[in-house]
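Hey, can you fold this one?
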Amino acid sequence: MSQDAPAGKKPSVVARQQSILPVLASSPSISQAARTVGINRRTLTRWLQDPDFREQLAELQRQRADLARGCLQDLSLQAVASLVEYLQIPNLELRLKAIRTILEYSGKVGDIQDLKDQVQALETSLPLWTDHAKPRRSNY
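Sure. Predicted structure:
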């Protein structure tokens, strides 16, 4: 038996599970993923009950989300550079739209940073709250 195959599973099943992970991670539904790779939906549903399979799927989805976030951040920098260029054009209407857009989104970025700071402060103070919530012994 292959080293990759968990005890009790045939290597071919493990290979099939591995091959469907990318399709499942990008499909809108379990049914769609099953149709795409040509397996029964019930088989895929059964595989999803396996914690190892679910964890592999979750990790792949996290990796894809991180990649998408990175791409969006790169595009955001390009968009900001384009807005800066619009600040220099003679058309007053387009300059004002660029100014409004910059101010609107810079305010949202500030709001997001404030929320992150508040969450961090709450997380930092959480141990203090849990210490106060512990029942105290009575001296009686």
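The chain is about 80% helix and 0% strand. Let me know if you want another pass with a different chain boundary.
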